[in-house]
Design a protein that fits this description.
Order of helices and strands: HHEHEHEHEHEHEH
Strand content: 5-15%
Shape: globular
Oligomer: single chain
CATH superfamily: Alpha/Beta hydrolase fold, catalytic domain
Largest sheet: 6 strands, parallel
CATH topology: Rossmann fold
Strand order of the largest sheet: 2-1-3-4-5-6
Radius of gyration: 16 Å
Length: about 230
């Protein structure tokens, strides 16, 4: 059915991930393949901040990547000037490291990563989305009512550009979960042509960016693309 999100059982199961997400900044780095100082920025999910990606960034730094959070505080949703506000960090990091930046976006953060890559492909090496709903019906999830209640626009008309499903002109990898309790798996997996590759990861939505399995997958993808 159009607009149908994950079942209430999957939705309820996400609540069990909240304590793990809150505790993740206290957890140690997950071993992943070594990088070589490549710059990586992690965009947080809706209503979260850089705190949510501390474990992932700690793991990336321990592996030799130059990992950063974004500079906009809490992710409060789409804003008309959002992409322009993301650009200065990308410009600064690309100049500092002498190479384009890889963007990892969890949930709504992945939509922003895709859109800024469309606007400034010269600054972006690759985009990895984690459970990001870039495809299909924007109401095929269990969060759209909350989003619209807290924002001044509908999920169908976010003020950040054109076709959300259009693939950025850089390598774009979409990680999706069959047990995602927030977004319909198809929304995060997408249709052929909307990303370069779709990777299944059986992890709850709230743990895609902090679970060891998710961090190991990200490390593997970075190693495969950036070291290839």
């Amino acid at each position: 059915m159009p607009g149908l999100g994950p079942s209430w059982r999957l939705w309820a199961a996400e609540t069990l991930e909240i304590p793990k997400l809150l505790a993740s900044p206290l957890q140690s780095a997950v071993p992943i393949p070594q990088g070589n100082g490549q710059p990586v920025v992690v965009y947080p999910g809706y209503l979260t901040s850089n705190v949510s990606s501390i474990r992932l960034r700690r793991s990336l730094i321990a592996a030799g990547y130059a990992a950063y959070g974004w500079e906009l505080g809490q992710n409060k949703g789409a804003r008309a000037d959002l992409l322009q506000r993301l650009e200065p960090q990308l410009e600064r990091l690309a100049l500092r490291h002498g190479q384009p930046v890889t963007l990892i976006g969890w949930s709504l953060g992945g939509l922003f990563a895709r859109e800024v890559a469309k606007q400034r492909p010269d600054l972006v090496k690759m985009v990895i989305t984690l459970g990001s709903p870039f495809s299909g019906d924007p109401r095929a999830n269990n969060a759209w009512r909350l989003y619209e209640w807290l924002n001044d626009h509908s999920v169908e008309n976010p003020p950040i550009g054109g076709d959300i499903a259009e693939k950025p002109p850089v390598r774009t990898l979409a990680v999706w979960s069959p047990i995602d309790g927030i977004f319909a798996p198809l929304a995060a997996r997408g249709q052929p042509g909307e990303s370069d590759r779709q990777i299944e990861l059986k992890v709850r939505h709230l743990s895609l960016a902090r679970a060891p399995a998710g961090i190991r997958l990200i490390g593997s993808l970075l190693d495969e693309v950036l070291s290839g």
